[in-house]
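Notes taken during the Thursday session

The instructor put the following on the board and asked us to keep it in front of us for the whole hour. The protein is Peptidyl-prolyl cis-trans isomerase. We were told not to look anything up and to reason only from what is written here. First, the residues (283 in total):
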Amino acid sequence: MRKFCLFCLCLFLLGACKESQYDHKGRTPLVELDGNFLYKEDLMAVQPAGQNRDDSLLFAEHYIRNWAEDILLYEKAQNNVPNNDEIEKLVRNYRKALIMHTYQQALIHQKLSEEITEEELQEYYEQNKAVFKADAPLMRGLFIKVPLTAPQLSRVRQWYKDERQSAVEHLEKYSLQNAVKYEYFYDKWVPASEILSWIPLNTSDIDTYFSRNHRVEVKDTAFWYFLNVAEYIPTGAQEPYEAARPLVNDLVLNRKQVEFLNKVKDDLYKQAIEDGKIKYCEN
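Then, after some discussion, the predicted structure tokens were revealed:
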């Protein structure tokens, strides 16, 4: 029965809307319903790739039915929903807001496309430090994970504690052949939760733990885990500029956009006053 329906659908699509007084502007009509047309190009645009013939026809059957049901429901609603004037008002307001938003975004892209300077960001951060508090612990440091049987473990214990470049280079070379995981993050802030996901460290209060321990050595049945925490920021403490920078950038950009759009509207209003376009009518 399913194959018969698909066969009928195929014949229907091949013969649909052969002749019509409508101008389809080069498109190929497949189905007509009360002057509404579904075109072959529309169907092909949403047709999933890689389907076999039966699946493709089945998809077309469901798509055409949904298309027709939407039109029928819309026509029924038009005839039965009161206050069409109120709906038209909402549509006009939405269209107005959409056009204004599109124009504003085009203006912003045209006028504010240049990159915000680092000086602007740092100045904003310094003036609004109270806003930037760490909502989760952060840390900078170095981590290495090696098998229990790895060679030169005594050297590893020396190198991972030493933040000098020479020690870091030794550890990087060592990690190429011996480490299961090696992460250098002295130069960036990383959420402490991410680091702790690498280590079998059992503690319920990480703020207290890392306020006392900046070097961690733990092992399980297969690996040694070494962590050197160069700096730790607990929850609620002042967030460093480097960590806060993405949010600072968003806030500065948003402020510039608001200021720019306010100026555009103010200039338009002043020009309209000057041109005599705005007239106050007396009762």
